[in-house]
Give the backbone structure.
Amino acid sequence: MASQAPVVQTKDLTIRFGGNVAVNAVNLTVESFTLKAIIGPNGAGKTTLFNLLSGQYKPTSGSIMFKGREVTDLGAADRTRLGVGRSFQLTNIFPSLSVLENVRLALQSKARVGMVFWRNYRSYSELEDRAYELLRQVLMEKRWAVEAKTLTHGEQRKLEIAILLALDPELLLLDEPTAGMSLEEVPAILELIQQIKAARNRTIMLVEHKFDMIMTVSDSIAVLKEGRLICDDSPEAVACNSEVLEAYLGGGVKNG
Ligand SMILES: Nc1ncnc2c1ncn2[C@@H]1O[C@H](COP(=O)(O)OP(=O)(O)OP(=O)(O)O)[C@@H](O)[C@H]1O
Ligand SMILES: [Mg+2]
């Protein structure tokens, strides 16, 4: 098989906010169809790294390649079009619409961008069927008819993932998908992530504080500390790296 360009490759990626270097000379490579976890203490730069990858922030210096193509100067919309998918907490949920309508709208917006609508959906009901299928995937199908604003926090996170999947990105950036969920809801999200991974047609970057979850699903784990990438290795190697343990355990990690 011909070797593919990595899905993500950053070179000396750096962003400063005043005197604070939130992401500092990060060289990170993420291979196709793998799951890369990003861990590190609070304030380490994980979310900022995602904002850089999705085009929300422009780096101070350094570069970002997506599938071998330089995207450093592209905006967020262009990156979405290329297949970078970022879930934003609540901002792409329409509160007064039903759960199903929220997913259907995401499917339609993807269709408009990619012109796949007419190819893939012959009718409105087919679109609804697909939306329902996505809701089933995130274990939300029983809640299809309720207004999105009535969902619990954990349910809203699941809806966000369904919306993200509807947009069909090649790279999924999941920033603490289980944050705010009750403990009973977490295994379903873990299973969903494993399902997505098993399909081997998407690349996932996952920020999570739940260390056991990270150890279970990751192909590799990158560790950020004060904006710097201090380690990027297999879960086994990361788990016994003393610098990582010190940074992670000593850095005031949120309970989870
Ligand atoms: N828009 C911004 N303006 C100023 N400083 C920012 C901005 N965005 C992030 N930062 C700073 O960058 C640093 C990294 O923040 P970031 O949110 O990326 O951390 P994190 O690793 O996601 O932490 P957490 O685990 O708490 O989510 C912090 O010092 C933060 O205050
Ligand atoms: Mg964060």
In short: The chain has two domains: 1-83+171-193+202-256, 90-168. The longest helix spans residues 99-114.
